[in-house]
Design brief:
This protein has 261 residues and is of the alpha+beta class. The protein contains 5 helices and 17 strands. It has a single domain, classed as 4-Layer Sandwich (Double-stranded beta-helix). Strands 9, 11, 12, 14, 15, 16 and 17 form a 7-stranded antiparallel β-sheet that branches. Strands 5-6-3-10-13-8 form a 6-stranded antiparallel β-sheet, with no helix packed on it. Strands 1-2-7-4 form a 4-stranded antiparallel β-sheet, with no helix packed on it. The longest helix is centred in the N-terminal third of the chain and has 13 residues.
Length: 261
């Protein structure tokens, strides 16, 4: 049986490199990716656990399966649980802050407003969420989406009735589709509701594919629901920072030496 999500309060700080500050009442918990915590006040205690804690009756085998799923996604086997065990602020409240892994935007999503209370996001978009949120994997059923989409075969599925926070590079654009089709650069998709179908199409004719500069394939999103896009995926950010788009000798710059390590 899945537990209701904790009802957390939050504040997003900053503009280009953001931090989300979560305020917890005594006994409330927020889960986060390993290494995302920036600071925490007195009263906050953290535990590294195998699983998201959404199913209080989960067996050891179930927790191992969930950890294995996270390993497949390239994430840490463990998640960190931050709980207010008795803060010193008004009414015993305490705060914990989480920072984004690279420049971009943090967006709060109320999962209870989603279709089936679930959201599909790219595998590194999840930052943190209220305890009770289930974080699992979802596979793209179409071969083309898996081979040529920026998301690959594996997406993260967020399920629950509380707040989850996702992160993306640059500016996040929120689009509402009403039985419409949207074609997007494959790496610029952050997430979408499960009512949206996701596929890969060729980027025009042969000449456009080779010389258009938009890549060979584009992602096609179709249906009714909400879509989140990012203006600067991390791969584009790295290409922009490296000399000549990363095609020059890495050892020729300090930044190149950093990426070479």
């Amino acid at each position: 049986m899945y537990r209701p999500s904790d009802q957390i309060d939050y504040n997003i700080i900053g503009e280009s490199i953001q931090v989300v500050e979560i305020e917890l009442d005594p006994g409330e918990t927020v889960i986060a990716e390993a290494g995302a915590m920036l600071y925490m006040e007195d009263g906050i205690q953290f535990d590294t656990k195998m699983g998201d804690g959404s199913d209080a009756n989960s067996s050891i085998l179930g927790k191992l399966f969930q950890a294995g799923s996270r390993w497949i996604m390239g994430e840490s086997l463990f998640m960190t649980h931050f709980t207010n065990r008795g803060g010193r602020g008004p009414a015993g409240k305490s705060k914990v802050g989480f920072s984004a892994p690279y420049p971009g935007t943090i967006v709060p999503v109320n999962l209870s407003s989603m279709y089936r209370s679930e959201l599909l996001v790219q595998k590194d978009a999840f930052l943190c969420a209220a305890l009770g949120t289930k974080v699992s994997i979802a596979f793209n059923k179409k071969l083309g989406s898996g081979l040529f989409g920026g998301e690959g075969f594996i997406l993260q599925k967020l399920q629950g009735d509380g707040l989850a926070f996702i992160h993306a590079g640059g500016t996040i654009i929120k689009r509402q589709l009403n039985n419409e089709t949207l074609r997007v650069d494959t790496g610029c998709i952050v997430g979408f509701e499960s009512t949206i179908s996701y596929d890969i199409d060729r980027a025009g004719g042969l000449k456009s594919m080779i010389f258009g500069g938009e890549g060979i394939f584009l992602a096609t999103l179709h249906g009714t629901g909400t879509v989140w896009l990012q203006s600067m995926p991390v791969r584009k950010l790295i290409q922009a920072l490296l000399p000549n788009g990363g095609n020059s000798d890495k050892g020729s710059s300090v930044l190149g030496q950093f990426f070479e390590q």
